[in-house]
Specification:
The complex is a heterodimer of chains A (about 250) and B (about 200).
Chain A (H helix, E strand, L loop, with lengths): L4 E9 L2 E6 L2 E7 L1 H10 L5 E5 L4 H17 L4 E4 L5 H10 L3 E4 L1 H5 L2 H10 L4 E11 L2 E6 L4 E6 H10 L4 E6 L11 H10 L4 E4 L5 H8 L6 E4 L1 H4 L5 H10 L8
Parallel strand pairs in A: 1-4, 1-12, 4-5, 5-6, 6-7, 7-10, 10-11, 11-12
Antiparallel strand pairs in A: 1-2, 2-3, 7-8, 8-9
Chain B lengths: L1 E4 L6 H10 L5 E3 L2 H5 L3 E4 L5 H10 L3 H9 L4 E4 L1 H4 L2 E4 L5 E2 L4 E7 L9 E6 L1 E2 L14 E6 L1 E4 L3 E6 L3 E8 L2 E4 L7 H16 L1
Parallel strand pairs in B: 1-2, 1-3, 3-4, 4-14, 5-7
Antiparallel strand pairs in B: 5-6, 7-11, 8-10, 9-12, 12-13, 13-14
The chains are: A alpha/beta (about 250), B alpha/beta (about 200).
Chain lengths: ~250, ~200
Amino acid sequence: MLAKRVVPCLDIKDGRVVKGVQFANLRDAGDPVELVQRYDRDGADEVVFYDISASAEGRRTTLDVVSATAEHAFIPLTVGGGVSDTDWIRTLLRAGADKVSVNTAAVRDPDLVERAALHFGSQCIVLSMDVRRAGPGRWEVVTHGGRRPTGRDAIAWAAEGERRGAGEVVVNSIDADGARQGYDIALLRAVADAVGVPVVASGGAGGPADMLAALTDGGADAALAASIFHSGEVSVAGAKRYLSDRGVLMRVV
Amino acid sequence: MIEVVDYDAGNLHSAAKGLAAGGGEPVVTSDPSVIASASAVVLPGVGAFCDCVGKIRERRLEEPIRAFITSGRPFLGICIGLQVLFDRGLEGTGAPGLGIFPGEVVRIEAPGLKIPHMGWNSLRFARASRLFAGVPEGAYVYFVHSYHAVSSDVVATCDYGQPITAAVERDRCYGVQFHPEKSSAVGLRILRNFVEMAAA
């Protein structure tokens, strides 16, 4: 049967991996190609690059990173961050990305998901959404790191994304992001019940126990995490062994 | 020389890099005469069946591919590159394939399970194959697809509500539904096995 996935996420700025809290106090965290190779050896099922470069020059170096990674790492690679048109999606796929995720631009122009899925196939178009709790059992899609509300209901948006052709949905809880208090399990469950495509849990991982909750109670297919892996306090292999020992089907290398 | 057929498929370069990591010196080509003189050929692919088979025909690569396979030299189709080798694909409006393998490529029926079948699944071998030498039963490989081949030439399956065709083989024509170039060490081992067959 299909294994659940553990996915390290790397923030890329001007060709380097950076670490920071809420995009502030960015520190260099290393060479992306070396990190991906290490995660590949460690059993990562996929790697996500999140491009936080602001300039065209930064975008170009990110593209170089995608090509270099595709050359040296042999696991699926998803690229997101600032993706707003199909030309850029095509460029990223040609450079070696296996999937491209759209977020803010899709909220602004939902038709982008449709156009992208039509051109490149649903399997490589990921709808990524930032979500804030809006009340009991209600969540709102937000943009700009949570600062800008959109009025869109998160569960309805996930379903619409699927209908428009997204092949996967990443659910990032802004409330939980960086707090390391665990993913928003009720949110994940609500999305997983609403869509028929894979759901990726993001935001809030403090350790393997949180991943266990996301992949079982939350119904997620993959657990994404950034800081806990980069800091080295949790290894990908260690997290996967923990999950496997507790009955979650994992590819353990 | 291993030729990787360029017909504007998305993951062309990933497949070439994987073969290089497996010890080969792949060359990307869409030249029919280069294909004819190759020692081995790889047909990669992502996308839709009709689109891919259409591009192969537009570039007049169907006959060179068929002739190469008939010559008995090693051939490997990856994902859509496997699917187009069948008689017919039912994706979209449906289209005839290259007819190297008898059978159809049908939508995965997996009630309660998500489509596409995307992620890592484990291999079950129906019979021994040189392509999988050194790959243990249960090894995980990476799949992304919504259709699979119904075939009597299956050498490996994975379980996704039903047995899904993971690999087919007839003489020295091989096809894998998963992406060896994205399947980490196990995938590279498979590509190395193919490279060795090409060199032999």
